[in-house]
Structure formats: structure tokens, C-alpha cells
Amino acid sequence: MFEKFFAFIGIGSTQVDLQLDQNKLTMGQTASGSLHLLGGNVSQER
């Protein structure tokens, strides 16, 4: 019961980390980098 509540407020939920290769981008420039996903403790759908 508490797991879903904690996931709702961000504790134990899935973590997403986007790391871009460039510090600055201009409009129209292509961004490149990596996306890291870390699964949480509770099944989530959004």
C-alpha cells in the first residue's frame, strides 16, 4: 500500500537521467547524449 504512495511522491519511483554531450545548444541544432533509466520499486503507468 505504501509503495504506491511513495512512488507517487517520488520515493522509490523510476529514475530518468538525460546526459547531453554539449553544455549549450542553439535553436535547430541536433542534440546528442545518453538516456539512463533505473527501474523503481513499484509498477507504474503514466
Q: What is the general shape?
A: elongated
**How many DSSP-defined strands?**
2
Q: Label the structural class.
A: alpha+beta
The arrangement of helices and strands along the chain is: HEE
Strand content: 25-35%
- Main sheet: strand order: 1-2
Return the average pLDDT rounded to an integer.
80
> How many structurally independent domains?
1
Unreliable sequence segments: none
Fraction of residues in H or I helices:
10-25%
Number of helices: 1
N- to C-terminal distance: 18 Å
| Integer-rounded radius of gyration | 15 Å
The major beta sheet can be summarized as: 2 strands, antiparallel
Key traits:
single chain, 46 residues, alpha+beta, two-stranded antiparallel sheet, 15% helix, elongated
Summarize the entry for a quick read.
With 46 residues, the protein is α+β, with helices and mostly antiparallel strands. The protein contains one helix and two strands, in the order αββ. Helices cover 15% and strands 26% of the residues.
3D structure, described in words:
Pfam families: Spo0M (PF07070). InterPro entries: Spore_0_M. With 46 residues, the chain is α+β, with helices and mostly antiparallel strands. It has one domain. It is 15% helix and 26% strand. The chain contains one helix and two strands. Strands 1-2 form a two-stranded antiparallel sheet. The mean pLDDT is 80.
